[in-house]
Amino acid sequence: MAEYNAYQAAANEKVAQQRIKLLDEFVEKFPQSTLLPYAYDLYYRTYNELRNYPKVVEYADKVLALGDKIEITARLQAISTRTLAFQFAYNERDPNAREQATKGLAAAREGIKLIGELAKPENVTPEQFEQGKKQALAFFHHAAGFAALSLKDHSTAIAEFGKAIENNSSDPVTYFRIGVAYLSKEPAQHLDGFWSLARSVALKGPGEAQVRDYLRRQLQAYQRIACETEREKQFNQLLTLAAGTPNRPPDYRIPNAEDIRAAANAAENFVAALRGGGEHGQLVWLASCGSEFPEFGVKVIEVASGNDSVILRVFGGGTPEEIEAATTANMEFKVEGQPEARRVQKDDFVRIAGTLTDYSPDPFLLHWTKGRVNPEDIPEEQAAPGKRPGKRPGKRPPRR
Fold it and tell me: Could you tell me where in the chain the CATH 1.25.40.10 domains are found?
């Protein structure tokens, strides 16, 4: 009776910290008690209430070590609580991290096994029972994936997270973690990783803003393009597509840095490549957009002055003969901080540098900012009456 009363005193204690103290006293006084399974059960529940997750894992494992001596529903409850606590308690810097992750993976797989052995209770319908099993399987497969990811076993993590998604396709955290696994694998499965991260963003889970930033960084590392407009365009397109379906279409592609560089190197004339359009033209555009171009020769077609800038519509990018014969602009430069560029006139040939930012395919026109005309090609300021006028630039295409 003293043993029973000591356990009941702990079980009935409302204050969690005091309950732990009473349990410690009970175990110390009655180390062989047949009530120990109940004490261990109460321990892990109390530590879970206190959010002391390492202790939750410790005492849930004591319950699970009893095996078939504990009924299956109690084992499932212990393993569920232990599995969730492990994800909160795990610290990759812990010297025992690998051992803990290995045990976490084994526990999650034991949970999957027990779900398969669970009999349907009499008070639920077959549909309710199957739905409950799906939710439990999604939980345990996710936990197994988390443990495998912690062990850097990326193939196993991908397989386990994939099974979790089969049972619950609306969990943003699972999509985030499988995305990380895809991108961490050697070699990385970039497209599947990007799609999974985008799917996580679309489902608006916890930390959505951080997942967005992570996806942006991964895309930029994959493509290494300078054009912010194009980066955002591809990013937003990916988010829109992933919001519509959990599975990446087989034909969905995002060009990588090697594809982009190879296309740029193969293009003898980037203007002609852009005019040609198609996949090659798009790759050349990704390589060119946002880049600063050194001086090259153009023919001035039109000059328009604003309050703080000069707009030069020019023709460039062709052979000297094409440039000389041109009558329609294929480029527009915004020149700022160089007001003397207003003195450039129609049909002048000048050398100009700038940053390529956008283009219109029809009619074809490249848009440049940060334009800078070579000062040697700008006419001198008009002389006062009675004085000799300044020199005009040459009337032939400058060297490219």
Answer: 2-186
